[in-house]
């Protein structure tokens, strides 16, 4: 198999991307919160693991009501994380190891203590009066329409100084910027340039599907599927989400990105497989990678998985590069859903599908949801919309590095608790050559060593009996991937000569398989190199 390096400007096509929530990664000063110095001290680990890029959730100055997605100053580092000098040190240290850095761009809203909002809310005649979404009260004095906040209640909040309402998709303290205003666009492009000039390799655009809301402020219709769903889903958000005008905002953001060489733009476009193609753009490019969460949302079985993978590929325009995400700071841990044995199969699927893999800190040690006692809950969503099992804190618990108290994350008291009964750690798994961590590392290395796994075409094979199988082909190089989703053995045959490259169990020798068949053990996946005639 060949090992040609692809076009550098599209480095992200062959990259493996690792999401870090810095507040929970590594604390260096004992305040119980992770910080940039702590992150720098863990670069050795990132290098050892083999990831090509890290995406950090927001590190900007923020009251941290919503994990830093409430920004008070886009061009300053939150003091609990460190300083701009430390940030520059982080960029340098990552780049020295060949690891790229992606920041979170939150263009949809600011914190309400941001100076833009303070000015905008001070008077209808202020210079920034039109920087946020303001509207007069309805005739009865109530909110202008029925729009709901994702975090519960009306999305409109009364402001006495202006005698008007402002719109907030999320918390009351997160007012939405007005993307129809060219000054807002210009201000966000300045923010982007500030970080790009400091060497940042790209952005993940937060809430990119909701940047524009209906100009007529039409009421959202009732959601026929609302029964049993949290109250914010009472309406179908046709006039607030995924408006066609939003695409011009994404195109604008992309133009800024493209004025720098080799930068990446990915974005959060949740739950939109049938629409995902639009987020790539046609004449005018939009996102390089609209994040795709389909593997998280699909029942863990060979047939539904095959169907979901096909549906996703079919939804992509020809020029689009695929992307697969299996975890994140908003998503329930996939290891809790599929279980420890299948988590290995999932890792193999993620690293061998065509497209850029994203995983979230802790996925590589098979981390499950951490139980958070009710009095320790921090997630504002859970506080405002309790009782639906949608709290995001179980995913946001600090990393467990070793067996010491608080997992080596902090010497102080962690901002969110770790597992009460201990649990598996990075150090423990680093010394076990068959751990899931060892598997993630081996898969990343395998991907790097074989161009067909990175760049090759994808061809599904007809599967049955809980087996998911496909080929990845580039020129004369071909890999066969066979994943046993069952907890019982399954046999698989092929034509031609094959050589085993890797088993999820990490206990098979890499050697020829002369029978052109393999008996997969329960929960086992394999990658086989095929000889193409
Ligand atoms: C995005 C973030 C989420 C946050 C929300 C509001 O969905 O991923 O964590 O709560 O935006 O900023």
CATH topology of the largest domain: TIM Barrel
Compounds present? alpha-D-glucopyranose
Whole-number count of domains: 3
Q: Which sheet architecture does the biggest sheet show?
A: 8 strands, parallel
Task: Measure the end-to-end span.
Answer: 13 Å
* Order of the strands making up the biggest sheet: 11-10-9-5-2-1-13-12
Secondary-structure arrangement, i.e. CATH architecture of the largest domain: Alpha-Beta Barrel
Average pLDDT works out at: 96
Cα-atom radius of gyration: 24 Å
The number of helical elements comes to: 14
Structural class of the secondary elements? alpha/beta
Under CATH, the homologous superfamily of the largest domain reads Glycosidases
Q: Shape from CA axes? A: globular
Sequence stretches where pLDDT stays below 50 over 5 or more residues: 1-5
Query: How much strand content do the residues show?
Result: 15-25%
CATH class of the largest domain: Alpha Beta
The proportion of residues forming helix, as a percent range, comes to: 10-25%
Q: Total strand count, please?
A: 21
């Amino acid at each position: 198999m060949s090992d040609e390096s692809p076009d550098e400007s599209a480095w992200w096509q062959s990259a493996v991307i690792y999401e870090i929530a810095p507040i929970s990664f590594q604390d260096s000063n004992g305040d119980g919160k992770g910080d940039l110095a702590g992150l720098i001290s863990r670069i050795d680990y990132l290098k050892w693991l083999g990831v090509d890029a890290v995406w950090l959730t927001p590190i900007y100055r923020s009251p941290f009501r919503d994990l830093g997605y409430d920004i008070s100053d886009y061009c300053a580092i939150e003091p609990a994380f460190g300083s701009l000098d430390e940030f520059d040190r982080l960029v340098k240290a990552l780049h020295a190891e060949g690891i790229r850095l992606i920041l979170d761009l939150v263009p949809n809203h600011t914190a309400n203590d941001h100076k833009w909002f303070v000015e905008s809310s001070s008077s209808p005649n202020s210079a920034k009066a039109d920087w946020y979404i303001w509207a007069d009260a309805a005739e009865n004095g109530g909110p202008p329409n029925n729009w709901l906040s994702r975090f519960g209640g009306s999305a409109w909040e009364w402001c006495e100084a202006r005698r008007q309402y402002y719109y907030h998709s999320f918390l009351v303290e997160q007012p939405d910027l007005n993307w129809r205003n060219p000054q807002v666009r210009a201000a966000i492009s300045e923010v982007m340039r500030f970080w790009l000039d400091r060497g940042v390799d790209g952005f993940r655009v937060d809430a990119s599907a909701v940047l524009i809301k209906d100009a007529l402020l039409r009421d959202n219709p009732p959601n026929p599927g609302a029964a049993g769903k949290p109250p914010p889903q009472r309406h179908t958000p046709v006039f607030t989400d995924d408006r066609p005008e939003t695409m011009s905002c994404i195109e604008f953001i992309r133009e800024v990105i493209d004025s720098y060489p080799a930068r990446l733009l990915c974005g959060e476009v949740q739950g939109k497989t049938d629409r995902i193609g639009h987020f790539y753009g046609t004449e005018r490019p939009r996102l390089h990678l609209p994040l795709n969460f389909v593997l998280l949302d699909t029942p863990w079985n060979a047939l539904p998985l095959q169907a979901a993978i096909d549906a996703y590929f079919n939804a992509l325009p020809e020029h689009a590069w695929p992307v697969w995400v299996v975890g994140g700071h908003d998503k329930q841990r996939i290891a809790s859903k599929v279980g420890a044995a299948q988590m290995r199969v999932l890792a193999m699927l993620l690293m061998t599908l065509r497209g850029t893999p994203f995983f979230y800190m802790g996925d590589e040690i098979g981390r499950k949801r951490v139980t958070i006692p009710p009095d320790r809950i921090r997630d504002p969503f859970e506080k405002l919309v309790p009782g639906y099992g949608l709290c995001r804190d179980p995913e946001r618990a600090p990393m467990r590095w070793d067996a010491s108290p608080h997992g080596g994350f902090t010497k102080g008291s962690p901002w969110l608790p770790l597992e009460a009964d201990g649990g598996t750690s990075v150090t423990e798994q680093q010394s076990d050559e068959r751990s899931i961590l060892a598997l993630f590392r081996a898969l990343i290395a395998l991907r790097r060593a074989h161009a067909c796994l990175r760049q090759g075409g994808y061809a599904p094979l007809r599967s049955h009996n809980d087996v998911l199988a496909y080929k990845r082909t580039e020129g004369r190089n071909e890999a066969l991937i066979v994943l046993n989703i069952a907890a019982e053995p399954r046999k698989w045959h092929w034509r031609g000569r094959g050589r085993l490259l890797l088993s999820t169990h990490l206990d098979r020798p890499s050697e020829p398989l002369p029978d052109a068949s393999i008996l997969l053990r329960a929960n086992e996946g394999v990658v086989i190199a095929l000889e193409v005639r």
